[in-house]
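Continued from yesterday's entry.
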Amino acid sequence: MEEKLELIATQTLPYNEDLYILIDFLNRTLKEKKVIFGVSQRNDQMVVSIYEI
């Protein structure tokens, strides 16, 4: 069965290499709550996205 992701919110922040560590922590901690966090880099900015399964 394929799970669909629904985008809940996004936030753009200044680049910070430690943000990947935070996103990994959140995903491991909240995976049972059916929430997934993503992070992408756009130039000198980071975009954090929150999805609901």
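--- second protein ---
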Amino acid sequence: MPTSVKKQAKTRGVKAGATPADDLMQAFPSIRLPIRPPYPPAEAKSVARIPKEPGWLYEPKWDGFRCLAYRRDKKVLLQSKAGQPLGRYFPELLDALAQLEHSCFVLDGEIVIKRGDSLSFDDLLMRVHPAESRIRRLSLETPATLMSFDLLVDEGGENLTQLPLSERRSKLEKFFRSLKSETILLSLASTEEKQAERWMHELGKMGLDGIVAKQLDQPYHSGERTGMVKIKRIRAADCVVGGFRYAEKGGGIGSLLLGLYDEDGLLNHVGFTSSFTKEQRRELTSVVEPLVAAPGFTGRAPGGPSRWSTKRSSEWKPLRPALVCEVSYDHFSAGRFRHGTRFLRWRPEKKPAQCTFDQVVAAKKSGKI
């Protein structure tokens, strides 16, 4: 590992990646394709178990940034799940996509960074930085890879989104058959449920986030959670930080107050995370205090003090809904996390509005998910 990367790994704290999604938004240049950015990618609904019925395609759930990659002739664009341009943060991917023999396509995939035998989400977060010189250096020290799992526009310029997944996957495999790239790769897929179970257990040490299962007879559902489910190795959810409380002792931030949006577009308080070290609590102060603004939560708000609370620990400060973080949790019921959650990481590539209750509410049983 390069010395500079070792140093960054030691010094990166809880501030790394704490960037509001709106700070990454820019206008995309025009591109002559039947699908143009920002195009909402299909999304998956969380379920507890891998579906076993016939008609599913199973894929590894890579731990990275969702990405739509567009190319028309010499123009290449990268788009995040939230519709943000990603190209400036991953110049090595722009170069690799521009060198492919196909000069027209739209790929759906996941940007990952490998560190040894595993994936490193921390290194992805280090790319979200305003300094182009730093991004260029990191693109050489910790180059990214695009794991491609769907083809939305083929090399002939045809829009494939209305075709069933079975046909799109066949065309995707044909697309990659003649490619020779160590950076743009075809993601694994299988119709065997036993293979999905093996991936869940065997690839965990590599940083696999879980399994994605897609119904083979479904078209591409842009912006919807239809025909696709995800099974994570841990229970996790992306939440908006709608407020915070100061630590009762030692200074800094004691806890971040978490929110999810309901069907009416209201941000509801659903719990908190306080799994921070003393140093991280001090770091968080500079992250959240500039965002203090009422009302914070527009739906259900944090309650008042309990008999165990002190005045300092019960008071909370509202935040502008700009920061998104991922937390792990044990149980969700009655509209909230039943225990404190564990902070996992910031998600600057996701918009707050994408943090909804359907992440934690089980899918209803029906013919189609």
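The radius of gyration is 21 Å. DSSP finds eight helices and 18 strands in the chain. Will compare against the first tomorrow.
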